Amino acid sequence: xxxxxDRLMAERDIDAAVVMGSLAGNPTLYYMVNGAKISSGTVxxxxxxxxxxxxxxxxxxxxxxxxxETIDINHYDFVGLLRAAEGxxxxxxxxxxxxxxxxxxxxxxxxFYGTGGRGESYTLLRAIDANVPGVRVVGEYSGDIFAAARSxxxxxxxxxxxxxxxxxxxxxxxxxxxxRSHAIRxxxxxxxxxxxxxxxxxxxxxxxxxxxRDLVEEVExxxxxxxxxxxxxxxxxxxxxxxxxxxxxxxxxxxERGGGYFxxxxxxxxxxxxxxxxxxxxxxxxxxxxxxxxxxxxxxPVRRYHEMACEFFESRGxxxxxxxxxxxxxxxxxxxxxxGLSIHEAPFxxxxxxxxxxxxxxxxxxPGLYYPEQGLGVRLEDVFYLDERGEFHNLTDYPQELVxxx
Length: 406
What we know:
CATH superfamily of the largest domain: Creatinase/methionine aminopeptidase superfamily
CATH class of the largest domain: Alpha Beta
Oligomer: single chain
Structural class: alpha+beta
Number of helices: 11
Number of domains: 2
Distance between the termini: 46 Å
């Protein structure tokens, strides 16, 4: 949570943190400006002091909605710096940061976060390090202070995720109703005009349903049937027709409009009936899911649960990544991940993770089995929240049923 930032900065010997870039695709900046609708900006946080937001003049009203102390970039006369540098934007930007740091009393180890081209960022940070007196530029490669802070959610964040969950469940339910409402001809679903219902038709319905609920599909929804269901991140081909008795992996992971919080859920179903092989796989996955969930414990290392899933599946005769890291069949992905302003964030639930289940964690549990050459794939995914009392809450209010009647 944000209240942990000063502690994290102290533990990692960071005197000040700078978050910069465009807001789009920049969850760390969104986090720090509390979702204010700016196009770009720079947040500067000195350890032990509140963060400040440096913004463009034309966005002053939106910047004020961040709740942070705001500073118009004109306060530092960036235009004058650019003129003095004869149009050299790199030199002017270094001068801008020198003025900002002097103004805020910042020196020592300064870490940078946010977005930008790698070459551009590398060049800028080297120039700041070399030319701003008293400042040493440092960086973090993974698990940075903001990722660590975001790995646990405040109640206000959880409330927003719950609302995205509610709308996502509505979308899943509406989509399944849409699909099952079609007529059947030779075990293929058909539309009123006689054309066959396709994966593309289902995905277009999903997009409309999300839009109506103020959610956006940042990455295309997975609606994969048959062999594609057997490859975990195959999104499904638009031209594939929807048939009875085939496993369909339906994984939808929308976010709030404007760059906010994500949700993530997966259901696997067969229309009309399920072959015996699909029934057996589904029961193995559901039993694994129940086994893991019943063992969840506050403070536990998450690797325990991935290993538990591997042991369970192996006991049922399925290959897993734990014993065969190169396998393309069986249990071929990690058990889960945190969810928030990014679709994948800490805690990362796999057997190489050092994360633990802390109060405020919001994370998925998503065991699956995949046999593409048999045209079979099954995944079940719910999102859980660990509250301050050490209790786990399932935020995914939707049944796990294999057969959908038509």
